[in-house]
Amino acid sequence: MMEHETRLGHVIILNGTPRSGKSSIAAAIQDASNELWMNLGADRYIRITPEEYRPGVGLRPAGIEQMEEKPFALRKKIEPLVPVMYAAMYDSIAAHSRQGLNVVTDVGHHDDYARPQGILYDCARRMEGLPVLFVGVRCPVEIVWERRRNTWLKEQKIPDDTPPPDSVHQWNREVHRPGIYDLEIDTSTMSPEACGQEILKHLKQGPQPTAFKRLAAMSARDRK
Questions:
Q1: What is the CATH number for 194?
Q2: How far is it, in rounded angstroms, from Cα 11 to Cα 20?
Q3: Which of 19, 60, 93, 181 could staple 147 via S-S, CB 3.0–4.6 A?
Q4: Angstrom distance (rounded) from CA 134 to CA 15
Q5: Which letter does DSSP use for residue 37 in this model?
Q6: How far is Cα 183 from Cα 14, in angstroms, rounded to an integer?
């Protein structure tokens, strides 16, 4: 007797800066869909990482301090492990998809490390043969900065007219390179619920996603 063939679960990768709205969109997708969606995003991966090795997959671009205390020592310790952590996270996503489970993942990919790691391209290759929709979550720097002031930095009581620091601009630039997506959304003009509906609509109506296939096929020369 032949075993029933399990369909591949859909995968949605939400890529953007911290406070661009990725986590809220992931939750909105889970709420709006009639199907089961597992959230295997970077925030959850960071939570299962020991404190001394955090933020791991959430490590900011080079030059942006992660902590006030010994930021460069922290980077030296964690940075070599980041590609391994991403590989493990994406292999887990792939395993869920192959079991027929839909997965939504929020990440902030960049390649501004001590030396280029090509992590995004490696992750794309790990998802070969799986239905992956790569979504760029855009948000103006000024709004990202306002959200940070009102959440993470609330206790510091930063004046409203304080301009976004260079680190916020740098993070916003680096996370969207090379800018190859199946779909892009702007969370400054759409609610998380509207973004989630737009993504699910695109997933259902097409066109078929190709971004990860293109990223996986890119050579080192193409990435520059």
A1: 3.40.50.300
A2: 20
A3: 19
A4: 8
A5: E
A6: 10
**Spatial contact of 211 and 181, defined as CB atoms under 8 Å apart:** yes
Q: How many residues make up the chain in this entry?
A: 224
CB 13 within 8 A of CB 105: yes
Tell me how many domains the chain contains. Answer: 1
| Cβ proximity of 150 and 157 under 8 Å | no
Strands (E), 9-131: 11-15, 37-39, 102-107
In terms of residue numbers, what domain contains 127?
A: 11-219
| Both structure tokens of 102 | 């839909």
Distances (CA, A) of 182 to 32, 149, 173, 199: 20, 31, 19, 10
- 1 within a domain of the structure (yes/no): no
pLDDT tens-digit readout, 81-91: 999 999 999 99
pLDDT by residue (tens digit) across 164-202?
888 889 999 999 999 999 999 999 999 999 999 999 999
Please report whether residue 28 resides in a domain: yes
**pLDDT for the residue 17:** 95
